[in-house]
Amino acid sequence: MTHxxxxxxxxxVVKPDEMRAWSAFVHKVSGIFxxxxxxxxxxxxxxxxxxxxxxxxxxxxxxxxxxxxxGRYRNQVVNAITTNETSFFRDRTPFDLLRHKLxxxxxxxxxxxxxxxxxxxxxxxxxxxxxxVYSTIIMLDELLGDLLKYDLQIAGTDISDQAVAQASSGxxxxxxxxxxxxxxxxxxxxxxxxxxxxxxxxxxxMASFRKANLLDPYAVSGSYDIVFCRNVGIYFREEERxxxxxxxxxxxxxxxxxxxxxxxxxxxxxxxxxxxxxxxxVYYQRKTxxxxxxxxxxxxxxxxxxx
Length: 307
Ligand SMILES: C[S@@+](CC[C@H](N)C(=O)[O-])C[C@H]1O[C@@H](n2cnc3c(N)ncnc32)[C@H](O)[C@@H]1O
Known about the structure:
alpha/beta, Rossmann fold, 39% helix, binds S-adenosylmethionine, 12 helices
């Protein structure tokens, strides 16, 4: 019997026990859960790594990845296994929510509190290649005009260093800008580079990106007005989803808002948050009189009543 696929002749088929070991490894390094039906993901997305390392079988490749002191193979596995699907203004409604409700309300509140140059802090968790971050900057520029009048900082993180590198460069193909941006927006916010488009520096500097595993209790911290955490929990099992969303809740300022994916739910995960609705959008805010503190040492989020 030849254990080969038709598309990758030199690469053997992943056997069930090998898949179990790979699934445990991927779960350990990323939280992503791959059940046996996802064997094809290991088989196809790691085929190049298999060939370049000259591994003898899938268990041997896993050994090499685990023992690589540079961590390079591990990064390659994470880059290959993560699904970085995203687009500009993905799902539209969160950006309408920001434009028509959350940002105007935030600015009003801060002005009442006495701020002249209003601070706006936004976090995009699992930002992939950065489209969510740049969509937010474009929306804010369209809404507010001169953004330099505001103290705006938008941070994006992702576990894939390849995705983070593209986000930091701000360079997109015409196919990518065509997904969600109008020609007028491309013209205004991008310059042309080598057959693609690069976010203009005067907008790009408002964003910062770095690599972070959202399940690593030491990897993310801060205090934000808006936290996006969309379409990453869908790759996790319930336990990791609970850790993820509780961590996100702990990153909110007392009046901050958490926005999750359109198919996702927080039910049962964050007792200190309540769902609020505006037109067709849902977002989450702290219930009055509750707080959430993140303890990196224990990895636990302590939710308490402040009443
Ligand atoms: C489908 S994309 C979603 C991108 C964006 N949030 C959106 O909704 O358009 C999922 C992203 O989650 C990232 N990811 C997966 N596991 C992660 C983890 N444990 N920590 C941080 N990012 C992770 C992947 O690298 C990928 O870029």
